[in-house]
Design a protein that fits this description.
The chain is built from five helices and eight strands; from the N terminus they run αββββαβαβαββα. By secondary structure, the protein is α/β, with parallel strands linked by helices. It has a six-stranded mixed sheet with strand order 1-8-7-4-5-6.
Length: 191
């Protein structure tokens, strides 16, 4: 009987290893699943960093975008910032969520490093981040023109990572363009 008790820690270790190692066989190990994929962006009412203006989730509609969670205290955010500037220069719509940060420091950051964001949502207490299931900064959400989250990336967005997600972004853009084209065909047909 005492020998069986000796094997209990080994059995527990094997069970824990199997449980924790379940992600080893996953196809995309760097993609964390999100329960928000294919769901609307959470509702919020928060201030804009750059101006005295309140923003809501309706400000995240119209055309596809990246919603980038960032902060001045985050060294990885600084590393990805130049690439975000490059994407913005290429016409990619990027919205920022300034996460658990000092607004004045954020304004200085944007002034000194460039501002790739159409606007920034100030989330000083991290409530919107909590609703999004944010693990930390940086994180990027791919949101379509209807405000539906289509993908999420945890970590810095760089050229290598962008190549993985570019297809999703192009698909979101093509969907919007097809809807616009269909709408204008309907209008022309009714004349």
């Amino acid at each position: 009987m005492n020998r069986i008790l000796l094997f209990i820690p080994l059995i527990m270790f094997i069970v824990m290893a199997a449980f924790l190692g379940g992600g080893i066989g996953r196809e995309n190990k760097d993609v964390l699943p999100s329960p928000l994929i294919d769901k609307p962006f959470p509702q919020f009412i928060l201030q804009q960093v750059e101006a005295e203006k309140q923003l809501t989730q309706s400000d995240l509609q119209g055309k596809p975008m990246l919603v980038n969670v960032w902060a001045t205290w985050c060294p990885t955010c600084k590393a990805e910032h130049q690439f975000l500037n490059t994407l913005a220069a290429q016409g990619v719509r990027i919205i920022g969520i300034n996460y658990k940060d000092d607004e004045d420091e954020a304004k200085v950051w944007l002034r000194d490093l460039g501002n790739p964001y159409e606007f920034n949502i100030s989330d000083p207490k991290g409530k919107l981040g909590l609703e999004l299931g944010v693990y930390g900064a940086p994180e990027t959400f791919f949101v379509d023109g209807d405000g539906i989250i289509r993908a999420k990336h945890v970590g810095d967005l760089n050229q290598r990572v962008w190549q993985k997600y570019k297809g999703i972004f192009e698909q979101m853009k093509n969907h919007v363009e097809a809807n616009v084209s269909e709408a204008s065909s309907s209008i022309e047909g009714s004349k």
